[in-house]
Design goal:
The chain has 8 helices and 9 strands. It is of the alpha/beta class.
Length: 229
């Protein structure tokens, strides 16, 4: 596998930026195009940057371009949207689902997205409910493969401070030894491992819909690291 073109949505965030770093180093990808509201600081001959108004479908479609693989790492928080649930939906649901719609129309074969453990459209929790609805909507698009990554708390250095997430991360670090068997999927995971597992999955010839939780992501990240040695 080589000469692939990837599109990343959410490359300015924690996981998306790490996916970008991995793709720029990976020889199987000849072009990496990011769609964002602002540029990233990276400069690389493979990198194409497009500033996009995601609510303008004509602009979104035009700047999407052609390619093979879509990495969707977009996501927001209640703090960022100031409690506006409609704006939250526009970011966490509309942007990924519109990306799938555009991707299918342009012949992309693979779609990979960062969701969340516990995503369920029947959940009373707004966040998990929205993630579940997004997952189910994406299943309606006939990509060769749809890979859904469901991490718990993400470890990594963020540009912004998330107090609640930092507290939860600290608690999970302390009690992580309790996460055995069925509870292992709730183990906090490094965003770098999520990014590596996504790139690894994108390079596999697996068709259909696949879900990846903590253990699967860690195994793929190890496989990815081994392939680079």
């Amino acid at each position: 596998m080589n000469e692939l073109t990837a599109v990343i949505i959410g490359a300015t965030g924690l996981t998306g930026n790490l996916v970008l770093d991995e793709l720029l180093k990976d020889n199987d990808f000849k072009t990496v195009r990011i769609l964002a509201r602002r540029n990233v600081k990276s400069i690389h001959p493979k990198l194409q940057q497009e500033i996009v108004n995601f609510t303008n479908m004509d602009e979104y479609t035009k700047k999407f371009g052609e390619g093979d693989v879509i990495f969707c790492c977009i996501g927001t928080t209640q703090k960022k949207v100031k409690g506006d649930k409609e704006l939250y939906k526009q970011i966490d649901y509309d942007i990924p689902v519109n990306a799938a719609h555009i991707g299918i129309s342009k012949g992309f074969k693979k779609f990979l997205i960062v969701s969340a453990i516990g995503a369920n459209e029947n959940s009373s929790n707004f966040y998990l409910n929205l993630k579940g609805k997004t997952e189910n909507a994406l299943k309606q698009f006939h990509f060769d493969s749809l890979d859904i990554f469901q991490p718990s708390v993400l470890n990594g250095k963020r540009k912004e401070t998330r107090i609640t997430e930092q507290i939860l991360q600290s608690i999970l670090d302390i009690v992580s030894f309790l996460f055995l068997g069925p509870l292992k999927k709730y183990h906090a995971i490094g965003a770098d491992n999520v990014a590596k597992s996504m790139v690894y999955a994108a390079k596999q010839n697996k068709n259909g819909v696949h879900f990846y939780k903590y253990q699967e992501m860690m195994e793929m990240a190890r496989e990815y690291n081994a392939s680079k040695e």
